Amino acid sequence: MVFGFLKKKIKETFDVVKKVTEKKLTKKEFDKFFDALEFSLLESNIAYDTILAIRESLEKELIGKEIKRGLQEKIIMNALKNALRGVLKESDSTKLLQEIKASKEPIVIMFVGTNGSGKTTTIAKIAYWLKKNNISCVLAACDTFRAASIEQLEKHGKALGIKVVKHKYGSDAAAVAYDAIEHAKAKGIKVVMIDTAGRSHANTNLMNELEKIKRVVNPDYVVFVGDALTGNDVVDQCKTFNDVTPFDFAVLTKTDVDEKGGAILSVSHATGVPVMFLGTGQLYKDLEQFDKEKLIKLILE
Ligand SMILES: Nc1nc2c(ncn2[C@@H]2O[C@H](COP(=O)(O)OP(=O)(O)OP(=O)(O)O)[C@@H](O)[C@H]2O)c(=O)[nH]1
Ligand SMILES: [Mg+2]
User: What is the pLDDT of residues 248-269, one digit of tens each?
Assistant: First the structure.
């Protein structure tokens, strides 16, 4: 994660505050500063609603505040940190591990998202993470739609030494998931991860089908996998997915190649659902546990 773009843009807006001549920041001066900042935030792919939330928080904290000479940057940075704290949700992957370990029944996790967002890769990375934590899992090849999807999952299964439950292409995705859950129950496997086919959030038929899979499988967790590079579009995607198959946490992928960072901020603000992991590359180890304070530091310091 680099965030060079956003960081640079935010710093540029400080020049406006540095010109503050009166002791206390007036509404007029704030508006001038925020106009510059708003543009930077928009350019960084942060959704408009999220920008409004940031504005509200900054307004409350900064208007009427004494801006001491030499401390302008520090004061604004602190206010921005607080604004981002309000926008981002906390997530706790350690708690998830504990819950999995304590559960008598297999924990079923279903992954949803648009085409190519990184679902299958993320499942393999999470399987690797679970394995490192001595937790067994089975993968359900429920993308029976896209050519070579089953082989792709099997390749990961082989590399990680993890079983993949599959049927033929074109078969019912829910039936594959059902078999994988039965397998996990019979063998005492702790986690079932369901790889669904990518679909456009605008395709009502395909979204309804996803809802059907969810109804049959009744997963413990639904995970939305979003591609950080799609920027603002990921916000529409996550809202629609959250309406059809409400999700419990999100994973944002390709953050290693996303300079802007807007998607990470907007997804959890738009849905109220936390981001749990960030995909940071193409290797199994390239999965970071989302850490709110660490991200805020990365963006602002
Ligand atoms: N750089 C980078 N590439 C990633 C990351 N996650 C996934 N990818 C790449 O993104 C591409 C698509 O990943 P998949 O896991 O196949 O995506 P998917 O959502 O399963 O795709 P469909 O099943 O076709 O909908 C692959 O080339 C992955 O290697 C990431 O965090 N960083
Ligand atoms: Mg896939």
Answer: 999 999 999 988 888 999 999 9
Average pLDDT, the chain: 93
Q: Is 144 in the pocket of ligand 1 (CB under 6 A)?
A: no
Asked which of 14-23, 187-196, 274-283 is least confident by mean pLDDT, the reply is: 14-23
Q: What is the DSSP letter of 68?
A: -
Choose one of 121, 128, 154 to mutate for the ligand 1 pocket test, by most ligand atoms within 8 angstroms of C-beta.
121
Which ligand does the CA of 115 lie closest to? 1
CA of 101 to the centre of ligand 1 (A): 28
How many alpha carbons lie under 13 Å from residue 43 in its C-beta half-sphere?
14
Q: List the domain range (segments joined by +) for residue 21.
A: 4-87
Structure tokens belonging to residue 86: 């309000």
| pLDDT of 124 higher than 80 | yes
Structure tokens at 228: 């950080």
Is the CB of residue 280 below 6 angstroms from any atom belonging to ligand 1? yes
Question: Total domain count for the chain?
Answer: 2
- pTM as predicted: 0.95
Do 44 and 186 sit in the same domain of this protein? no
CATH number of 65's domain: 1.20.120.140
Q: Which residues surround ligand 2, an ion (CB under 5 A)?
A: 119-120
Q: Which two tokens stand for residue 113?
A: 């998202």
